[in-house]
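User: Sequence for MgtC/SapB/SrpB/YhiD N-terminal domain-containing protein below. Tokens please.
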Amino acid sequence: MDEYHLHVGEMALRLLLAVVMGGAVGYEREFKKRPAGMKTHILVCIGAALIAMIQQEITWSSITFAMDNPKMIGVLSADNARLIAQIVSGIGFLGAGTIIVNKDSVTGLTTAASLWAIAAVGIATGMGFYALALTSWVCVLAALTFVSHLMPLPRTRRLLVELENWDASNDFIQEYLDEHKIKVEDMDFEIKRLPHETFRTYSVIYTLTVPRGMSEKNLLLSLSSNPHILKIRLIN
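Assistant: Structure tokens for MgtC/SapB/SrpB/YhiD N-terminal domain-containing protein:
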């Protein structure tokens, strides 16, 4: 039965594959400035692969022991899915930490899903299912990299603007948004008046639907050119 046990070379190969595949997915997330990057995805993939290998070793050790001690067969059990099920549960808590809910917007869902998916890739790698691991890894990378380009859906962005002279500033902003087909979904504003000051400033949060090809940098630069706009930034 020794041929069924993992040797050092096989263990190293599986862990190396976990590093490469987890790192590639993590790089894509880190490049897009998402909460969980290369290190997190590598560690998740390595951890999942390691636990899968431990589960395999426990199973084969139990089988070997049972064959050497037939009288103990009735009291031995090795559930091949028990430890793996705990990986899935653990990743749920880790993924929840990447999800940010802010009023009507939710961010981090894709990163949470990528952590869950790379854990599954790690399990397949640790179990030695190389074809399954490599195929699923390619699918995960393709989903993260190409789907948004193949399906150019509008993006929702929240824009914080601090301004003075409400009428002139708001008219300028609305004209720019209409010209570039940017739809205002919601607007929330607060009026500020400093002590001993006669003029007011306004803090406005616009929830916008931005066309996929629209440059966020150009949006900020164009709006900030108005002298009545004191501060502007994207908040998601």
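Residues 158 and 208 are 6 Å apart (CA to CA).
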